Batch of 2 targets.
Target 1
Amino acid sequence: MSLLTVNQLTKSYQQGQPAVHNMSFELQRGESLGLVGESGCGKSTLARCLLRLEDIDRGEILLNGVHMEKLHGRKLRPLRRHIQIVLQNPAAALNPKLTVRDSLVDPYEQFKQELALKHFTVPSLDRYVQQLLEAVELPASLGSRYPHELSGGQRQRVTIARAISIEPELMILDEPTASLDVLSQGAVLKLLSSLQESLGLSYLFISHDLAAVYQMCPRILVMKDGRLIDQCSREQLFHEERHAYTKELVSMY
């Protein structure tokens, strides 16, 4: 059984064109699946729908075979810890009033009654935070700092540490390197690959950066105007038989 199955997902705003139209795909356990397309094609809307931050018009979202689209409120809560997101702008994703330690502890405090952690231990919250920072290759001393005291690369590593803190099965990476300099981009991609292997994570890697997606993802979906128009393996991305829009995207790099 696939970890994530999406069937004919459609999401519209007001009376306009659907932001996402009849999207169907599967994501396997341990897979890193790429989703590419120009800005405004519906990638981030799809991510919000998968996280159940948006209600969908029609379709299905199954996580571990459970229909997420049918759940609301308290019934949805048990599934939320299984899927986490890392966003493009870590400065906006972190509460400026919380220290790194408090940001990392918050998800644990929210879900601790139902957690059975395999990779991190909680002999104390300080030791737990230290393990999380070590996992993203940051010194434990950063736990007492605030987001504005960190570099962009450090902030993004903290958001990754927060995402893995409750050991989700699926992480949605929505343009996770777009706001970083080239050096930090490479380091974060390397870290994400390492974490995927050590923690058994599955990724939906959303980006308009084909180079990053090519590096991270053996299989790639191509989205245009809210629709899935092409899908291929990494090796097939540059084949002549690809959709004209896919070839257009490739030609930009």
Note: DSSP finds nine helices and ten strands in the chain.
Target 2
Amino acid sequence: MVVQADDAVFRPVRAGNPFEETVERLLQAIKLGVVVPGDRLPPERELAARLNVSRVTLREAIHALTEAGYVESRRGRYGGTFVNAQLPKPRRTTAKRLARDLAAGLDDALTLRQVLETGAAEAAASRTLSDAERDHLQRCLDETAAASLTDYRRLDSRLHLAIAEVTGSPSLLSATADVRMRLNELLDAIPLLERNIEHSNQQHGAIVDAVLAGDPDAARHAMQEHLQGTAVLLHGFLD
């Protein structure tokens, strides 16, 4: 079964707060690198149907993101809603303040992430991947390794989603996207250090190599080591 990240983020919103959830899904698509700067969002009619919201609600959500600087609307034959080339910078706030706001939710999110993503790496390595899936993983790995400091978090997120994509499980992919968004604001509050990025890229390479080699145990171990490093780094800035 082929699953794609845009299906995970553009899935139907839950009843109750359609406007807020529509904004959240669109932000998720942008911040996790599913829709990249310069790309056009799906057509309004299609996107409203996929999110299961009215076109009025979708337009209100797009207007809110336009005001916030994430997207712009263009008219004409090749018009539509496009992700801005320059995205707003993450809010300047301290990691400790965010951690206090998350409270016990931080350890909960880290535990959930570890379970989901180590399982995803193992499951991905257990499948026979198509040439397209293998190329997709390698491309996401290469783009992350070559990313600038400005783009690193977004492309890092996209690589992790790509690993979940090739498991063939839509539910696992959606859960991975959700937990990444829970942690993203905190990750954005932590400085990107060159040495950490180099180490992270090495670990990314080990994970993808194990998945492509069809070695579930190595893939799980490499992902576990990678996520433990992130958790240690987070707690190091919070303690």
Note: Residues 15 and 110 are 27 Å apart (CA to CA).
